[in-house]
User: Which sequence fits this backbone?
């Protein structure tokens, strides 16, 4: 089936979507998530994540966590 993407871009999209799921549902370190979704370099993972989402994995996780309303 054609996606309209180069294979490398398609693979990165799949990896980033899985990484988003892990960022939302685990407390795994970003480095560990990078390796779990198939990147061999956490630096490259962060760069690709930002390329596809416009934010870093750390920023993404922070935005997704419920805010504690108590002060």
Assistant:
């Amino acid at each position: 089936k054609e996606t309209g993407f180069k294979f490398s871009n398609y693979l990165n999209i799949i990896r980033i979507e899985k990484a988003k799921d892990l960022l939302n549902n685990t407390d795994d370190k970003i480095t560990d998530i990078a390796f779990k979704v198939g990147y061999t370099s956490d630096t490259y993972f962060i760069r690709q994540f930002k390329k596809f989402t416009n934010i870093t994995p750390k920023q993404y996780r922070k935005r997704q966590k419920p805010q504690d309303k108590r002060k």
User: Anything to note?
Assistant: The longest helix spans residues 7-25. The chain is about 65% helix and 0% strand. The CA atoms of residues 24 and 61 lie 6 Å apart.
